[in-house]
Specification:
The complex is a heterodimer. Chain A is an alpha+beta fold. Chain A is 44% helix and 20% strand. Chain A folds into 2 domains: 376 residues, no CATH class; 107 residues, Immunoglobulins (Immunoglobulin-like), CATH 2.60.40.10. In chain A, strands 10, 11, 12, 14 and 16 form a 5-stranded antiparallel sheet that branches. In chain A, strands 15-13-17-18 form a 4-stranded antiparallel sheet, with no helix packed on it. A 3-stranded antiparallel sheet of chain A has the order 5-6-7, with no helix packed on it. Chain A is elongated. Chain B is mostly helical. Chain B is built from 3 helices and 2 strands; from the N terminus they run αββαα. A two-stranded antiparallel ribbon of chain B has the order 1-2. Classes of the chains: A alpha+beta, B mainly alpha. The interface between A and B is medium-sized, with 20 and 14 residues.
Chain lengths: 486, 100
């Protein structure tokens, strides 16, 4: 993939040669991390339009994530993936394992959305909504509050061990662990009723597996957001590796405008850059310092770039201070930068066939999902031939077959069902022909079917069993079965 | 065995283990699985969890074998010192007939 990154940046005509020269004091800051000899990254806090957008999405996604399991609907948890009972509740819908087709559709929709958004504006998912980004943002915020800004953190890490360092590090990790445990608890709360879980946690009586998964997910959150951070994106994320194939030269990406910026160089604010023969880039290194993956965006498009736009915010502030126009680093396309398109020309090219095709397919699949959910019959029927007894003769010279009828009422109201059978003349239901199934429950009933002797020859005969709700004729299901005559 | 290689083995198998668990237990109910013809005698959550680790373990075994077979014949012929971590990394591992 390094080749792909090099190829991508090669298209920009800029050579990739790693990060820019490190600022003083940072040079020896290497540690053998999980994947490589890694230079620890101390992202500088950034403010601005895109940072605000990211924080808005942090709040939105986390209010949903932490809050949703507490919501009540129909006197039960609104969203509960009840693994123990093999039923998924999503507001008024109840899904059973047989409904996995809907889950498949949902996954297809997620994949297509990723295609669409990547083709349109690169890694917007990574930059604003991916849990890895969101939790790293939260953990970094904690780190900044406790340990201070970028330089203070670097100094603290270089300082010899002492009571202050110990106190700060302990405090940071304590807060991190608290957030991680709450996250693990919430995660498990999606799979086991959270109100029972909170009581169990309070009295230290959670089940062994619940305890295990709370700790497991908590540990993963702590490790990923506290320690691994950008390494997850660089080495563990499959999407980061193949997003290159969804890009093209008209995809909006975070780009540095070398035509405007180069030749870069420091200068006084009052100096006339034209007279000095300099471009707009003052080489302040702010874009590198704010980057959570530690790259230099001026080297062109790199696969490490998660499209968070932190460098845009940082650079815009510097441009403001210098009195230069904003947007030296901005959302643009490779074509636009190279050929100097205006914003309008660029937008017209961004809305291209590829985008419309992805959007069309996406809308079609979303439509299909809604139609499928709308016409879904909340009833599932299975007819199982009773293996123990084949045909037997009963009073009145009739022939009888015995079955097991499994009826799943997937609605959250009880239903009475009428059972019928057809396919052979004189075929009747000799067992109970009306049964009741409680809400969201599966019941198995013995079913005896009879025919008159001599109506059909020896052999197996196709029949059909129909189950129909008494209150609502639309809730009906037909199931094939076989009637044996010996 | 360096840490990087360990993660190469454990991480992709974790993903595959998760997917396999999801697919398998969507299709099969733990209550209807039999162990040597008898009942499992475990809760569904326990079976899901054990199932996940079993899938993870098997996928990890496959990843580990892939890593193991990555060694070139030159690595193996050179014997000690060429164990994990370097195969395919640099040109010096490529077989060089002129010096053999």
């Amino acid at each position: 993939m390094a080749e792909a990154a090099a190829a991508q940046s090669g298209q920009n005509g800029v050579k990739v040669n790693g990060a820019a020269a490190p600022p003083p004091g940072e040079a020896d800051e290497t540690e053998v991390a999980l994947y490589e000899v890694r230079k620890k990254i101390y992202p500088r806090a950034v403010h601005g339009w895109f940072a605000a957008l990211r924080w808005a999405l942090v709040w939105l996604t986390q209010i949903i994530f932490y809050g949703l399991p507490w919501l009540v609907w129909n006197d039960r948890q609104a969203v509960l993936f009840d693994l123990a009972a093999r039923k998924f509740y999503i507001f008024s819908l109840v899904f059973w394992p047989q409904d996995f087709i809907y889950l498949t559709l949902l996954l297809v929709i997620a994949a297509l959305s990723l295609f669409l958004f990547t083709a349109l504006a690169g890694r917007v998912w990574c930059g604003y909504a991916c849990p890895q980004t969101v939790y790293t943002e939260i953990f970094l915020w904690v780190e900044q509050k406790i340990e201070g800004g970028r330089l203070e953190r670097m100094r603290l890490d270089q300082a010899a061990a002492g009571p202050r360092k110990l106190a700060l590090k302990t405090a940071k990790h304590a807060v991190w662990i608290a957030i991680a445990l709450w996250t693990g608890f919430t995660f498990v709360g999606y799979f086991t009723p959270i109100r029972e879980l909170v009581n169990a946690v309070g009295s230290f009586s959670t089940g062994p597996w619940e305890t295990f998964w709370i700790l497991f997910y908590g540990f993963a959150t702590y490790g990923n957001a506290g320690w691994m951070r950008e390494q997850v994106c660089k080495y563990m994320c499959p999407y980061a590796r193949f997003q290159g194939v969804m890009f093209d030269r008209d995809t909006l990406i975070v780009t540095y405008d070398p035509g405007r910026g180069e030749p870069r160089g420091g200068r006084s604010r009052k100096a006339d850059r034209r007279a000095l023969g300099l471009g707009d880039c003052v080489n302040c290194d702010m874009c590198v310092q704010v980057c959570p993956t530690g790259i230099d965006i001026r080297n062109g498009l790199q696969y490490e770039c998660i499209g968070c736009a932190a460098c845009i915010d940082a650079c815009d502030q510097v441009m403001d201070r210098m009195g230069y126009p904003k947007g030296l680093i901005r959302y643009s396309t490779e074509n636009a930068i190279e050929k100097g398109f205006t914003a309008d020309q660029m937008k017209r090219r961004v809305l291209r066939t590829r985008v419309f095709v992805y959007a069309g397919i996406l809308l079609a699949v979303i439509g299909a999902l809604f139609v499928a959910l709308y016409v879904r019959v909340p009833l599932k029927v299975e007819v199982l031939a009773d293996r123990g007894s084949l045909m037997r003769e009963v009073e009145g010279g009739r022939l009888e077959n015995v079955y097991r009828l499994r009826i799943s009422n997937t609605q959250e109201v009880p239903h009475r069902y009428r059972i019928g059978a057809s396919g052979i003349e004189t075929l009747t239901v000799a067992s109970e022909n009306e049964v009741e199934v409680p809400p969201a429950t599966t019941r198995v009933f013995p079913m005896r079917l009879r025919i008159d002797r001599g109506v059909v020859p020896k052999g197996s005969h196709r029949i059909e069993v129909e189950v129909r709700a008494r209150e609502d004729a639309k809730i009906a299901a037909r199931e094939r079965a076989v009637f044996l005559v010996r | 065995m360096n840490v990087q290689r360990l993660i190469w083995i454990l991480w992709p198998s974790f993903i595959v283990g998760g997917v396999a668990t999801g697919v398998f237990f969507t299709l099969f109910d733990p209550r209807e699985l039999a162990l040597f013809g008898g009942e499992l005698g475990l809760s569904r959550l326990a079976v899901y969890s054990i199932g996940f680790f079993a899938f993870w373990l098997f996928a990890a075994a496959s990843s580990a074998l892939t890593c193991f077979f990555q060694r070139t014949s030159a690595d193996i012929n050179r014997g000690e010192g060429s164990s994990a971590g370097h195969s395919g990394d640099t040109d010096r591992d490529a077989p060089d007939p002129t010096h053999r």
